[in-house]
Write a structure and sequence with these properties.
single chain, 407 residues, alpha/beta, eight-stranded mixed beta sheet, 12 helices, 36% helix, globular, binds pyridoxal-5'-phosphate
Length: 407
């Protein structure tokens, strides 16, 4: 005989996801148009329309659509002149795709710690590295004295959608003659001192993966003001075909083109961008207000020059050890609320074992004590209040933990 149901009520409440797509505009109509007209592959009018919409939002002259944010970063680095055995400075606290793109370009990442306030790549560490650890070689290139390799580029990442300090980073790169490629994959709509993220470096890259601000299922975009770089990016993403009607290829290229169906989704999503940005801002402000007086929770700090797209709302648990932050994530999961840890800092990643790292302790602390909370544009105020109440009651129970490092 089965016992009367005493399953806790939480099993009945709706699941609250971390960050999911919202497809409620013209997506269906535009995709149907692709199917009806037979323009389903890499040619078709939506690709050009989507590129024009991105260029307008990013404030750049050119945009080249590609299959993913990672592909965008790979090709952007290549056209910025990053090649085999060059070094690229990237933050340690970022998604692994940033480093993978460097590796795909044949280059080697040098990981840079973040500053503790805004959690972005630390310009002081970069300034010290460029001034003290690098020298100008006879061929005019900047060399890392330790490795002997050329330092070719700086790739800031606008982590969580908050801007890196581009004014300082771009000035440092200019002073030392290295290229800037922005990983703006999380930062569509973000501004830094009034300038759109992605438009400040030589090239910028966006992602339209399912968890990003807008989605094409999967996709990416390279933006730049430089016509020659845009042309070369387009060339490399289309198998470097140079023969007009003939199959002639002047170098090794890639099949990185976005399809018309994906671009159709992207056009419909871009029509909703202003609404998404307003919704994300409302969600972030509601969390900010709810946690403002909670001594256990540090809400994201916002610089005066920063205008975030609030892509993923990520808090730090003050004084928490690794187990405590993970206990919060598990407790939320039991209440059918999806929360996530932040990425393992890349200087700890087995995939990049032995890579040179500038600092790293701040990224380790953020990895230890941070939790990302539901931030979907579909998050209703009542559901957000459920998240806030759950965070409060779970952190009441677990209290601040000992300071133990991540495994
Ligand atoms: C999402 C993301 C990427 C990669 O984008 P994909 O479209 O998933 O390839 C790169 N860097 C960062 C920081 C990201 O968040």
């Amino acid at each position: 005989m089965s016992a009367p149901s005493d399953a806790p009520e939480v099993a009945q409440v709706p699941f609250i996801p971390l960050s999911v797509p919202h497809l409620s505009g013209n997506e269906w109509e535009y995709v149907k148009d692709c199917l009806d007209t037979n323009w389903v592959s890499s040619a078709g009018t939506y690709v050009g329309r989507f590129e024009a919409m991105l260029a307008e939002t990013a404030g750049t002259r050119h945009a080249v659509a590609v299959q993913s944010g990672t592909a965008a970063l790979h090709v952007a680095l290549a056209v910025a002149g990053v090649g085999r055995d060059d070094e690229v400075l990237i933050p340690s606290l970022t998604f692994v795709a940033s480093a993978n793109a460097v590796a795909h370009a044949g280059a080697v990442p040098v990981f840079v710690d973040c500053e503790p306030v805004y959690r972005q790549m630390d310009p002081d560490l970069i300034a010290a590295f460029l001034a003290d650890n690098c020298e100008r070689a006879a061929d005019g290139s900047l060399r890392n004295r330790r490795s002997g390799r050329r330092v070719a580029a700086l790739m800031p990442v606008h982590v969580f959608g908050d801007p890196a300090d581009m004014d300082r980073l771009a000035a440092l790169a200019a002073e030392h003659g290295i290229a800037v490629v922005e990983d703006a994959t999380e930062a569509l709509g973000t501004r830094c001192s009034g300038r759109p993220a992605g438009s400040i470096g030589l090239l910028g890259c966006f992602s339209f993966n399912g968890n990003k601000l807008i989605t094409t299922g999967g996709g990416g975009m390279i933006v730049t003001d430089d016509e020659a770089l845009a042309k070369r990016a387009r060339h490399l993403t289309t198998q470097a075909r140079s023969g007009g009607a003939e199959y002639v290829h002047d170098e090794v290229g890639y099949n990185y083109r976005l399809t018309n169906i994906q671009a159709a989704l992207g056009c419909a999503q871009m029509e909703r961008l202003a609404h998404y940005l307003a919704t994300k801002k409302r969600i972030a402000e509601h969390y900010d207000a709810a946690f403002a007086d909670d001594p256990r929770i540090a809400v994201p700090a916002r610089a005066s020059w920063a205008d975030s797209n609030h892509w993923l709302y990520t808090v730090r648990l003050r004084g928490a050890d690794f187990e405590t932050s993970r206990a919060l994530i598990r407790g939320l999961a039991e209440r059918r609320i999806e929360a996530r840890p932040v990425w393992q800092p890349l200087h700890q990643s087995p995939a990049y074992n032995g890579a040179e790292t500038l600092g790293g302790a701040v990224a380790d602390e953020i990895y230890t004590d941070s939790v990302s909370l539901p931030s979907s544009v579909t998050l209703e105020p009542a559901d957000q209040n459920r998240v806030i109440d759950a965070v409060r009651s779970i952190t009441d129970g677990i209290g601040p933990g000992r300071r133990t490092a991540a495994p």
